């Protein structure tokens, strides 16, 4: 074969190959069909692959929430700041995962029987109560929620609408039998002992049960690992029971021991000093200026002044802590609405401030994942009572980071909360 005919053979071969490839591609692409528009123009339309995707009830809609790039915070810090959208859970918060796992674990142990009168008792500041209430309804149990009476009113109202019994309990120290958690435990055992009440009582025990951190070890952690393609530098989260921080960190560090975990702690909580210096302590206690029996902040859901088993489970894996003031959290919540249309609750705002401070400490180029725990709709009468975003578009990240200097005094926030209640009721 001379040079020219060799070249021709190669050209023909390549031509046939290209033709075959194009035919194969058009066959693979046969999921798209050609349709005529009203103007007679032909357009390609993709036909969706037919695959049944039906969840068997509300319980199967929990988890697999999106991970969103928070563009404004990422651009301002040079780090990629990602938020796990737990406010999109069916019960509106990250606590759906925990409530579902606590009930599943109890069922596996034979401690709950549907439609037998069995009731789940829990002491909670609200979010876990809502999650328990909806899952109990879905599965044939009753829910009895004890909560501190100083929490935002919409949570108690919502719980009642969901058919739960709500018992507001005056704030008290954890050693007091009337502390909301102790009260729930007592009521559960009274129910089981009762000869007149049908069914049994189960104390869910979110602060101490391992079913809490395991929900994040089996769910939140693997989801974040998969959604980031295994590429993240830091996980940032606040701690109420500590289940989210411990369970998620445990899983992520098993995959990549170089990943760092950072606690986001609101003012008034003792966990910051526990992580940084090994001592559970908050300066408000020393000053004698603490205004509340519980953690002295308007932030709900995170911050605590005792060590729980769920926090202890992952405590040694937590590398650093960031303390966030109420003013910074309020400014961040407002910033996220103004720049992103993200209307979030107080713990999410604390997490985002801590994520930003971590980004600024590490410098550009890192990927930081945090949790967007619940929506602002749960916090209208307290955390959000003081602020309306309106049409403004003028905040900068400095307004958040320097918020302490422009202090919105706590007394002012409290006055606004009182004004809200006198206008809209308790
Ligand atoms: C709104 C909200 N965010 C965050 C948390 C903290 O989660 P964890 O209990 O896993 O520490 C809670 C806990 O109740 C919560 O209610």
What does this protein look like?
With 426 residues, this protein is an alpha/beta fold. The chain has 2 domains: 59-88 and 217-419, Rossmann fold (3-Layer(aba) Sandwich); 95-203, Rossmann fold (3-Layer(aba) Sandwich), CATH 3.40.50. The protein is 43% helix and 14% strand. It contains 15 helices and 12 strands. It has helices at residues 3-28, 71-77, 95-108, 127-139, 153-161, 180-193, 210-227, 243-255, 271-277, 283-287, 309-314, 326-340, 346-362, 397-401, 410-424; strands at 32-36, 42-46, 67-69, 80-85, 119-123, 142-148, 165-169, 201-203, 234-237, 260-266, 320-324, 367-372. The strands form 3 sheets. Strands 3-4-12-9-10-11 form a 6-stranded mixed sheet, sandwiched between helices. A hairpin with a 5-residue loop joins β1 and β2 (42-46). The longest helix has 26 residues, at 3-28. The termini are far apart. Pyridoxal-5'-phosphate (PLP) binds at residues 93-95, 127-128, 238-244, 301-302, 345, 347, 373-374. Residues 60-374 form the Tryptophan synthase beta chain-like PALP domain. GO terms for molecular function: cysteine synthase activity. It catalyses: O-acetyl-L-serine + hydrogen sulfide = L-cysteine + acetate. Keywords: Membrane, Mitochondrion, Mitochondrion outer membrane, Pyridoxal phosphate, Transferase, Transmembrane, Transmembrane helix. Its cofactor is pyridoxal 5'-phosphate.
